[in-house]
């Protein structure tokens, strides 16, 4: 996954460093002593409890052949780090690094407790040599509201403007082509809760919104092109918690929606009122990003451990095969451009923006190109929108400041920057 703008000389240097890095990494894997390291601090009890719960949930996926095993092991490594199990963390990190699929180990997140462990630091440093920063984006526009905590972004072709949703303020704002910021749906109106995915209806310009973070407030909202409330759709009555996360709208009126906490994808058929669960060949874990092919025939569903493809003709679902040395796991925002997927991967270490070229049958990923990685434009990206041959995306959602419905350390928040990167 090299930067195709590198010169031939720089390319040779890059691959030479890559070879050295993994020769060194192999030495670390074979000869490192796992003992002797202690976490830099006592594991946080709440984080440790959450990690232990996750580990129990992840274990069955190690026996699931239709998901990416390295993605499962990466998440397990992060959880073992959170509980302070250094030896197990290093064991899994070595295996993940050896697979060369793009995962890395930033020390400002789940792995920060291992900041004084030489064995772990060598693995993290070597991976960063293999996968250096990639920078192609430029700033597009800025939202001055620092308390917005945005998650969803959509482009309205009819008005050539962007819609952005707020988790914290529970509203939707419009950014016009002349740089004005206008209210689209005011805070909390019509029962609107945390705003996540936003998609335009291609037939009439109306707006569909995934909203809410629990069973009482989770709903799929439908607004007119001017922001007037039309209808909302509740989740099925089950014992599961709900987080309506993202959606796509087909030209025939069908809507497909991810529910991250229920580990489910739903279909809302045109003219119907009930969300119907989609049957998948393997269990899902935290389905998130979802995309629709340009011809409306295929729905791409992302979860923590890979991508699945739904054929709208016969409703069959199968995994999208990943190519060598790539991961298709952890997409937050996911979109299509020509015969490619474009998306934001933010659960594989340092977030990145990528474009994935598919085969003609849309069953296998042939090439993954990194567009932005380890730069100021990937502080905490979430979602975006494809506009022509460009991808606009939220670079610094600051979603890590939003916990249990409250904003933490508001004094450190910054304006929200939307960046633009060319796909050609």
CATH superfamily of the largest domain: TolB, C-terminal domain
Strand content: 25-35%
Number of strands: 26
User: How widely separated are the two ends?
Assistant: 16 Å
Helix content: 10-25%
> At the third CATH level, what is the topology name of the largest domain?
Neuraminidase
CATH architecture descriptor text of the largest domain? 6 Propeller
CATH class of the largest domain: Mainly Beta
Structural class: alpha+beta
Low-pLDDT segments: 1-35
Rounded mean pLDDT is: 90
Q: What is the CA-based Rg, rounded?
A: 21 Å
The major sheet is characterized as: 4 strands, antiparallel
Strand order of the largest sheet: 1-26-23-22
Shape descriptor: globular
Number of helices: 5
How many discrete structural domains? Answer: 2
Overview of this protein structure:
This protein is an alpha+beta fold and 424 residues long. It folds into two domains: 8-130, no CATH class; 138-422, TolB, C-terminal domain (Neuraminidase, 6 Propeller). Helices cover 19% and strands 32% of the residues. It has five helices and 26 strands. The protein has helices spanning 8-31, 45-58, 69-82, 86-99, 118-130; strands at 138-143, 150-156, 161-166, 172-175, 181-185, 195-200, 207-211, 219-223, 229-233, 244-249, 255-259, 264-268, 276-277, 290-292, 298-303, 306-311, 317-319, 331-337, 340-345, 352-358, 365-373, 384-387, 390-394, 402-403, 406-407, 416-422. The strands form seven sheets. A four-stranded antiparallel beta sheet has the order 1-26-23-22, with no helix packed on it. β6 (195-200) and β7 form a beta hairpin. α1 runs antiparallel to α5 (118-130), α2 packs antiparallel against α3 (69-82) and α4 (86-99) runs parallel beside α5 (118-130). The protein is globular, with a radius of gyration of 21 Å.
């Amino acid at each position: 996954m090299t930067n195709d703008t590198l010169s031939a000389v720089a390319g040779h240097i890059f691959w030479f460093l890559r070879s050295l890095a993994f020769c060194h990494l192999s030495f670390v894997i074979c000869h490192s002593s796992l003992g002797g390291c202690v976490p830099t601090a006592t594991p946080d009890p709440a984080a440790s409890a959450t990690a232990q719960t996750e580990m129990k949930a992840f274990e069955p996926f190690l026996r699931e052949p239709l998901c990416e095993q390295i993605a499962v092991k990466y998440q397990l490594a992060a959880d073992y780090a959170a509980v302070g199990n250094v030896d197990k963390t290093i064991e899994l990190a070595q295996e993940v690094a050896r697979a060369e699929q793009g995962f890395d180990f930033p020390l400002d997140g789940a792995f920060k407790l291992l900041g004084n462990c030489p064995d772990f630091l060598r693995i993290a440093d070597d991976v960063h040599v293999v996968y250096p920063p990639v920078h192609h984006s430029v700033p597009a526009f800025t939202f001055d509201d620092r308390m917005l905590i945005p998650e969803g972004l959509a482009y309205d072709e009819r008005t050539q403007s962007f819609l952005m949703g707020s988790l914290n303020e529970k509203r939707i704002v419009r950014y016009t082509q002349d740089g004005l910021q206008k209210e689209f749906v005011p805070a909390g109106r019509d029962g609107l809760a945390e705003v996540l995915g936003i998609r335009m209806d291609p037939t009439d310009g109306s707006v569909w919104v995934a909203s809410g973070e629990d069973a009482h407030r989770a709903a799929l909202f439908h607004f007119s092109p001017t922001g007037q409330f039309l209808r909302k759709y509740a989740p099925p009555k089950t014992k599961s918690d709900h987080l309506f996360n993202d959606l796509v709208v087909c030209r025939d009126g069908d809507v497909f929606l991810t529910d991250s906490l229920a580990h489910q994808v739903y279909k809302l058929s045109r003219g119907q009122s009930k969300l119907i669960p989609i049957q998948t060949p393997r269990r899902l874990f935290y389905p998130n990003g979802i995309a629709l092919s340009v011809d409306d025939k295929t729905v791409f569903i992302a979860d923590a451990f890979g991508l699945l493809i739904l054929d709208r003709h016969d409703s069959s679902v199968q995994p999208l095969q990943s190519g060598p040395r790539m991961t298709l796991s952890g997409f937050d925002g996911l979109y299509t451009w020509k015969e490619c997927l474009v998306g934001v991967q933010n659960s594989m270490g340092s977030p990145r923006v990528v474009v994935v070229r598919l085969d003609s049958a849309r069953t296998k990923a042939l090439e993954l190109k990194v567009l932005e990685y380890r730069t100021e434009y990937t502080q905490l990206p979430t979602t975006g929108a494809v506009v022509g041959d460009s991808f606009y995306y939220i670079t610094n959602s600051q979603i890590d400041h939003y916990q249990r419905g409250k904003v933490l350390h508001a004094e450190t928040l910054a304006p929200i920057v939307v960046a633009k990167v060319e796909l050609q």
